[in-house]
Amino acid sequence: MNHDDILRDTDRCVKCGLCLPHCPTYRVTRDEGDSPRGRITLMQGLMSGALRDDAAVRRHLEGCVGCRACEAVCPSGVPFGSLMDATRASLIPPPRGAGLVGGYLLRHGGARRAASEGLRVAGRLGLGRLAARLGADDRPGAARAASFLPDVAPPPRASLVGRSAAADAAVDDVRGTVFLFAGCTAETFDGPSLEAAARLLGRLGYRVVLPEGQVCCGALDHHAGRAGDAAELAGRNRAVFAGREGPVLSLNSGCRVHLRAGGGDGFGERVTGLCRLLADVDLAPLQLIETPLKVVFHTPCTLRYGLREHGWMEALLRRLPGVELTPLPDNAFCCGGSGSHMLTHPQMADRLLAPKLDALAALAPAVLVTANVGCGLHLAAGIRRRKLAISVMSLAQLIDSRCGLPPGS
Ligand code: SF4
Ligand code: SF4
User: Fold this and answer.
1) pLDDT digits (tens, 9 = 90+) for 68-98
2) CATH of 284-401, one of 3.40.50, 1.10.1760, 1.25.40, 3.30.9
3) In the 8-state DSSP scheme, what is residue 403?
């Protein structure tokens, strides 16, 4: 999108203000500059040259959590998400040390594994709890990142990684092969979820493969305005999955939105989530237990506004016997996680999280289930700070935990 394209699309905004009550950042600050309408006006000023790209303008634009709640309610069809991405790309963010390190980690599996191991050691040493105790976790930086450490999980089993469909040809598959997308979070946060998904899909008759060579989906680069870097990552992932027939299962809604978009080579259509994959699948082979369990479900903005799959998630959860299901109140509002936003804008992230934690304290479920790893980390960090006895699980982990079959079967 060039400046003229951005101006043309922003001109669709009639400034009616219907989006304002749906915007989480405006709800907190009550500042027009933190509203969709205000941000669109700033984009128009920047693109027409009437405004300078200064710190105040950037603060309002970078403060957007990118939830796209405004887009969903806009009667004029303003494509706010792509406008914000294009505006950020045109602002050309200055390279920062941490950004360069992060970019390297998103692209190199070996370095990522080493960094993950370092984080696990730091977590075991209690550095996250120390940062929180010192009150150093409400500012951008290492202490904030450390506050997420207790959720650093072991990577998926080596036996799962790199398995090829050919090597598994002897398995008597009933339903075909599912390729797991692990992206950049597998070694650090997603190992248990990927294993849970592989376990339950195997029990349902799928052959499950986690191909090696995957990199970040590119969402973090894309939303930070680094479209070229995001496209390079997308190309590398497409090459990993090319020539393999079957759905690509991404457990995280944030990655899924990005993987689905663009390409034109059919890859996006292969990308699916657990709630869609299992929609018509009989769960009887899992022998699900009926023990009562109080579960609250969180629908990430990427699931609700990006994919519009929140209904699918709820439908799958309602098929679990014994589960007493309640939506997290105000699910339509962002929890503040929003990719790297919880690291770069910790105070806003925590203000958006606070009402969610109040609601969880009142509802007191045993489990909070969410469809995105970033939201899960943010929610879990808040739950720890409040000392609430609530486990945060992915959809795969929850279903796997309800499976009545003995381990290994
Ligand atoms: S609802 Fe749409 S047209 Fe109305 S102010 Fe918001 S972005 Fe503009
Ligand atoms: S994307 Fe979300 S935070 Fe950004 S302006 Fe729209 S509603 Fe507000």
Assistant:
1) 999 999 999 999 999 998 998 887 555 454 4
2) 3.40.50
3) B
